[in-house]
Input
Amino acid sequence: MHELAVAEQLLKLVEEEAQRAGARRVVAVHLVLGEHSHIAEEALRFHFERLTSQGSPAEGAQLRVRREPMRFRCLECDADYAPPAGDWRCPRCGEVGKLLDPGDELRVESLEVEMANTAYEEEEEEKEKEGGRGWPGET
Ligand SMILES: [Zn+2]
Output
């Protein structure tokens, strides 16, 4: 149930951002999800799709998730590193560094939206006009 609450919050944020930007539709949501987050990506996708299937501007939006590792900085040799699971030592000198980013967060990096007046829509209108013009000539 945890992912459902997260998906609800996420959708609320996405809808607010879309409205602020004057977007008609959200095409994609770029997320950063820490590798050590408790949130299961698949469950989040499932709930997000289900929530947006009931008439949201984010309906059909793709969730593009970038996984971000835990990051450390070594105080001995000043290296930044993302250690493999279970081994937090600096790959250069073997010291255990200082934790910079626990890699457990979820945040929205950016949204891809479709604005109210898109080139695509204008094209559609053009076609309709052309079709309309054809009628009188046929009679
Ligand atoms: Zn080091």
Notes: The radius of gyration is 23 Å.
